[in-house]
Amino acid sequence: MTSSVPLIISAVPTPFDDALRIDRDAFAELLERLPDDHADVLVAGTTGEFPALDRAERDQLTRLAADVLGPDRVVAHVGAASLYESHQLAERAAAAGVRRVALLTPYYLPADDRQVIDHAHSFAAAHPELAVFPYLFPDRTGVVVGAATFRALMEPANVAGAKLSGRANDDFAAFAALVRPDQALYTGDDSRLPVIKTEGGAGVVSGCFAVVPDLMLRHRDDPDRIRAIVGLLGPSIARQKFALQAATGRPWRSRMSMPELRTGVAAEIAALVEQLRRLAPATGS
Question: In the chain, which end has fewer C-beta atoms inside a 10 angstrom radius, N or C?
Fold first, then answer.
């Protein structure tokens, strides 16, 4: 029976220390504080600053997430500039016991529909043991996927669903009508959490959830409140990491260049974190 409760997968950020090395302790701490019923994670995706990670670091994060949460909770992002590298990332993820992977479309260089389809199909054929989720993010990749191409992307038996981010969500309803009953369509738009099931989706891959999981769960049926939370924290890695700095006292640095937070926004985020800190004892009683 299909649940009416949307699934939530946290698109977890990657913590860096003051020397810009991966902060393993901060990463494990972030994973451990996720609610048991909503502890699935997408590792080394856009929110995880994957372009700033080398292959060994992406492997390290995937293994650490599998160790902390169990491999069944982990979706490893294996998108890369070349399919050659994606294959290697997938092999390492599978060796860690992970069985779900997200594959970003080609990016940086232009790709036509045939290349986008061949990219996904050849990857899926090479890894029949993995559940593959094509990942569409035209705002970042420059690759726009239409309905016919999306239908073709979903054809392989081990394509288990897809994630739509940015402008790809404009076609969410049309794409939802094209998925098989055994496939799950996710949005990367956190603000759609209260309505995603009514739109034919399975759930949300959320950049905000790992930052304020209890708050998101408390208001998941309230569109206005969710929009307010998402408007403050995302989609912005810098804002999310500022909140995690305030909440944990850890550096939570970024490697990639991002706009500075305006003073007013930083103050709002700090106030939100303080509000959650005051509520925490009552929530745990």
Answer: N
CATH architecture for segment(s) 7-280: Alpha-Beta Barrel (3.20)
User: Which pTM value belongs to this model?
Assistant: 0.95
Per residue of the chain (285 residues), what is the pLDDT tens digit? 356 678 999 999 999 999 999 999 999 999 999 999 999 999 999 999 999 999 999 999 999 999 999 999 999 999 999 999 999 999 999 999 999 999 999 999 999 999 999 999 999 999 999 999 999 999 999 999 999 999 999 999 999 999 999 999 999 999 999 999 999 999 999 999 999 999 999 999 999 999 999 999 999 999 999 999 999 998 799 999 999 999 999 999 999 999 999 999 999 999 999 988 887 754 443
Task: Write out the H or E segment, with its range, that includes residue 239.
Answer: helix 237-248
Spans of all domains in the chain: 7-280
Active site residues: 135, 163
User: Is there a contact between 111 and 138 (Cβ–Cβ < 8 Å)?
Assistant: no
